[in-house]
Design goal:
The chain has 13 helices and 20 strands. It is an alpha/beta fold. The protein folds into two domains: about 180 residues, Acetylglutamate kinase-like (Carbamate kinase, 3-Layer(aba) Sandwich), CATH 3.40.1160; about 150 residues, VC0802-like, CATH 3.30.2130. The strands form five sheets. It has an eight-stranded mixed sheet with strand order 3-6-2-1-9-11-12-10, sandwiched between helices. Strands 13-18-20-19 form a four-stranded antiparallel sheet, sandwiched between helices. The structure holds aspartic acid and magnesium ion. Magnesium ion (MG) binds next to loops.
Length: about 425
């Protein structure tokens, strides 16, 4: 009986897991912070977990390298940029491994090409094609901590590639998928995913759980906690993803599949917003087959991505055609429209860059009717005019005047009761 109790005690410990922990630039921004990461890894290792660490470059380093390159050549070759930028992560894997060894842990660093993360050859935005897990697995089996450089790989010829800005998140998820890890933990400077940006709504609440789909909508709508590709990847390979702070203890936010939720889903999980778009309208174009493609064809030929598209009902054989683009591409989109307006027979080109997009997001919308009308009511109560609307299964977005953006976010956050109202948690 005694023996059993003892073994039960031991068995009562946290169950061993294989964790991929990714630490972003601010988490490894100084030598002290690298030491703090090593302490955290050490703690998990003591608990019996197997750990693969993925690190970013020290904060600011990637930008510094980009500036350095530009000071030498205004349009540097993409291949050489990748050789340059990949060095940022090579610094942090070595330093972190040294810090781990100082703590008596066996650790080994790997660049992307050393792991053999094979990518295509699209320098600067490469996609991962294959990951060799053999060496990493052997290290883990031998009790070592694997320290992998984020954001990089190599093409089939060994040319160094990078995965695009923020790409270390994708490395983390990809390694977790390849190693069949129990969880991919993204340590960052926020302690989770919030119902909306706490800088806009101070009662915004950290979500314990959110689905991949919801996270994708939140991320693509401007809640820049995670690289979008990393979330897509995690959803595709069903890698449980957790966002947590590397500075304060906490459970963070678990991003997972829909079915794993126990409770009934609220209609709306969060409010996303951004000011990154601009609106363009071609007024009074003939309402004939092919007109949409004749407008958007030249836009896409110019490599401009279109977000929302709205075409009015025509009354007199003409229609107004409106769409939104990223604000960075506004000037180019406007120039393109001006150049085709005449031949399309348009009456005018109208445009507005002072707009904002505000969206409600939630998988619970699927089973709750009337969510959109509640949204419109809340905006109307604040006299906010809606310029465009678009919907998907789990999202309703509106375009409004930029100057009402924060008001709209606050109104919606309260209309959908997203603030923390749990007794004892609410602040006076
Ligand atoms: N260091 C790269 C960047 O700043 C990759 C990353 O941090 O995820 O974009
Ligand atoms: Mg990052």
């Amino acid at each position: 009986m005694d023996l059993l109790d003892v073994s039960f005690d031991v068995g009562n410990r946290k169950i061993m897991a294989l964790l991929v922990q990714k630490y972003g630039g601010t988490s490894v921004g100084t030598a002290e912070r690298i030491e703090a990461v090593a302490d955290r890894v050490y703690k998990h290792k003591q608990q019996g977990d197997d750990i693969v660490v993925v690190v970013s470059a020290m904060s600011g380093e990637t930008n510094r390298l980009i500036e350095l390159a530009k000071s030498i050549n205004a349009s540097p070759s993409a291949r050489e940029m990748d050789v340059l930028l990949s060095t940022g992560e090579q610094v942090t894997i070595a330093l972190l491994s040294m810090a781990l060894m100082k703590r008596g842990l066996d650790a080994r660093s790997y660049t992307g090409s050393q792991i053999r993360i094979t990518t295509d050859n699209a320098h600067g935005k490469a996609r991962i094609q294959k990951i060799d897990t053999e060496a990493m697995q052997a290290d883990l089996d031998a009790g070592r901590v694997v320290v992998a450089a984020g954001f990089q790989g190599a093409d089939e010829f060994g040319n160094i590639t990078t995965l695009g800005r923020g790409g270390s998140d994708t490395t983390g998820v990809a390694l977790a998928a390849a190693l069949k890890a129990d969880e991919c933990q993204i340590y960052t400077d926020v302690d989770g995913v919030y119902t909306t940006d706490p800088r806009v709504v101070d009662s915004a609440r950290r979500l314990d759980k959110i689905t991949f789909e919801e996270m994708l909508e939140m991320a693509s709508l401007g809640s820049k906690v995670l690289q979008i590709r990393a979330v897509e990847f995690a959803g595709k390979y069903q890698v449980p993803l957790r966002v947590l702070s590397s500075f304060v203890e906490g459970e963070g936010t678990l991003i997972t599949t829909e079915g794993s939720k126990g409770m009934e889903q609220p209609a709306v999980s969060g409010i996303a917003f951004n000011r990154d778009e601009a609106k363009l309208t071609l007024k009074g174009v003939p309402d004939i087959p092919g007109i949409a493609s004749r407008i958007l064809g030249p836009i896409s030929d110019a490599n401009i991505e279109v977000d929302m598209i709205v075409q009015n009902v025509s009354v007199d054989g003409t229609t107004d055609f409106t769409f939104t683009v990223h604000r960075n591409e506004y000037d180019q989109a406007l120039a393109t429209l001006n150049s085709i307006a005449k031949e399309l027979g348009a009456v005018a080109v109208l445009s507005d860059a002072k707009i904002a997009k505000v969206s409600i997001v939630g998988v619970g919308m699927r089973s709750h009717a009337g969510v959109a009308s509640s949204m419109f009511r809340a905006l109307a109560a604040e006299s906010i005019n809606i310029q465009l609307i678009s919907t998907s299964e789990i999202k309703v977005s509106v375009i409004i005047d930029e100057k009402y953006m924060e008001l709209a976010v606050r109104a919606l956050h309260s209309a959908f009761k997203l603030s923390d109202t749990a007794p004892g948690v609410r602040e006076a």
